[in-house]
From TrEMBL:
Positions of the Pyrimidine nucleoside phosphorylase C-terminal domain: 345-419
GO cellular component: cytosol
UniProt source species: Dictyobacter vulcani
Name by which UniProt lists this protein: Pyrimidine-nucleoside phosphorylase
The gene coding this protein: pdp
Oligomer and partners: Homodimer.
Domain of life: Bacteria
GO molecular function: 1,4-alpha-oligoglucan phosphorylase activity; thymidine phosphorylase activity
């Protein structure tokens, strides 16, 4: 096989066979296909796309490029969830313990934040001593003993994806549905849960800027799951404004603990309870969403859900007292309240802008490997649709020093649009995509 023939074929709108895709991925992983040829190939895929069969083949080839954990051979059912990322997205922190408290195991590898979106690993590392770098044996042991494990993404799984993603990042080929779908699904399939729930976000704070793009990505991933016998469901959810009120690390973990106590903000709580219920139905733990909702409510009211979070924190070396008493979590030394510059209804809050402001406080990273400050972030005091009086609290800044708090104030206010008339709030969950039977 000649790489150049495959590049020109895709450039001209052709398709690849299963064998050709395996050959390309094996060659690139082993270094026999150079970056410049793979870059050209990625651009051809970006421009011409891939059909469902090619996308599934690409995903499987990436799964086979490294080790596989096959968690469902040891614990079954075992669920995984993935969010395409957003601002204030603490959903995993609440859904994982909720589902585990309802008796379904959760084995999850999760990423660090980059750019304006946060990462679950960084939020968890707000807890003193908590560690996410687990050996394969520890991952399995914690999963078996506690029905829940929340680890960092291992570079031994789907290594072709790591290499391809780095190349896509510098060649303008990130925003391709088959490439994103195969990248996400290869990492999930290499872990090997039996059921996967995807939260595909769209809006100013998300990767996919509009609902139709999110739907296409969701359909592609559900189809990859179906073809690989991995029961996959995707929720399409809005990221037109940050989720909940808290944006940062420890501050988001605090909000997740509130959600597990049943006293979190309405929007993000509803999303967490729905995702948990969906997973209980997918795995057959509940016959329908109504029964699942009852299980979820019982886990919250009995305290089992928050206890499960404390349990996994302790199992991974963290100080569980910080979950039992969130006042023990790290807090920023400076708090500055930004008042509303005018009276009116909030018509829009630019999630990306809010995420970038939180990053400038140290809560996120500008480049891979940057340290994050777990103490800093933002606490919104009002959301879209709320009426706010001029001078009333709008956003609380949690900063390391007064200068950093001062520097972001005008950028923060520029994220808001105001209306004199009441504003309609669109639903957070727009659609659920389930596999075709
Ligand atoms: N997240 C991934 O893991 N891969 C992509 O290609 C995009 C987002």
């Amino acid at each position: 096989m000649q790489t150049v023939e495959l590049i020109t074929r895709k450039r001209d709108g052709g398709t690849f066979s299963t064998e050709e895709i395996r050959w390309l991925i094996a060659g690139y992983t082993q270094g026999t296909i150079p970056d410049y040829q793979m870059a050209a190939l990625l651009m051809a895929i970006y421009l011409r796309g891939m059909d469902a069969r090619e996308t599934s083949d690409l995903t499987l080839a990436m799964v086979n490029s490294g080790e596989q954990l096959r968690v469902n051979t040891q614990v079954s059912p075992v669920v995984d969830k993935h969010s395409t990322g957003g601002v204030g997205d603490k959903v995993t922190l609440a859904v994982a313990p909720l589902v585990a408290a309802c008796g379904v195991a959760v084995g999850k590898m999760t990423g660090r934040g980059l750019g304006h979106t946060g990462g679950t690993v960084d939020k968890l590392e707000s807890v003193t001593g908590f560690h996410v770098e687990l050996s394969r044996a520890d991952f399995m042991r914690i999963l078996q003993e506690h029905q829940i494990v929340l680890a960092g993404q291992s570079s031994d799984l789907a290594p072709a994806d790591g290499k391809l993603y780095a190349l896509r990042d510098v060649t303008g080929t990130i925003e391709s549905i088959p490439l994103i779908a195969s990248s996400i699904m290869s990492k999930k399939m290499a872990v090997g849960a039996s059921h996967l729930l995807l939260d595909v976000k769209f809006g100013s704070g998300a990767f996919m800027k509009n609902r139709e793009q999110a739907r296409q990505l969701a359909l592609a991933m559900v189809e990859i799951g179906r073809a690989a016998n991995l029961h996959t469901v995707a929720a399409i959810t809005s990221m037109e404004q940050p989720l909940g009120y808290a944006i940062g690390n420890a501050i988001e973990l605090r909000e997740a603990i509130d959600i597990l106590h049943g006293r979190g903000p309405a929007d993000v709580s509803e999303l967490c309870y729905h995702e948990a219920a969906e997973l209980l139905v997918m795995t057959g733990k509940a016959a329908d969403l109504e029964t699942a909702d009852q299980l979820v409510t019982a886990a919250i009211q009995s305290g089992a859900a928050v206890k499960k979070l404390a349990e996994v924190i302790a199992a991974q070396g963290g100080d569980a007292r910080q979950i039992e008493n969130p006042d023990l979590l790290p807090t920023a030394p400076i708090r500055v309240m930004v008042p509303a510059p005018q009276s009116g209804y909030i018509a829009a809050i630019n999630a990306e802008g809010i995420g970038l402001a939180s990053m400038s406080l140290g809560a996120g990273r500008f480049k891979k490997g940057d340290p994050v400050d777990h103490r800093t972030g933002l606490l919104l005091k009002a959301k879209i649709g709320d009426y706010v009086q001029a001078g009333a609290p709008l956003i609380e800044i949690h900063a390391r020093n007064p200068e950093e708090a001062q520097n972001i104030q005008s950028a923060l206010l520029a994220c808001y649009q105001w209306s004199e008339r009441p504003v309609q709030v669109l639903p957070l969950i727009c659609d659920i995509i389930r596999p075709q039977k």
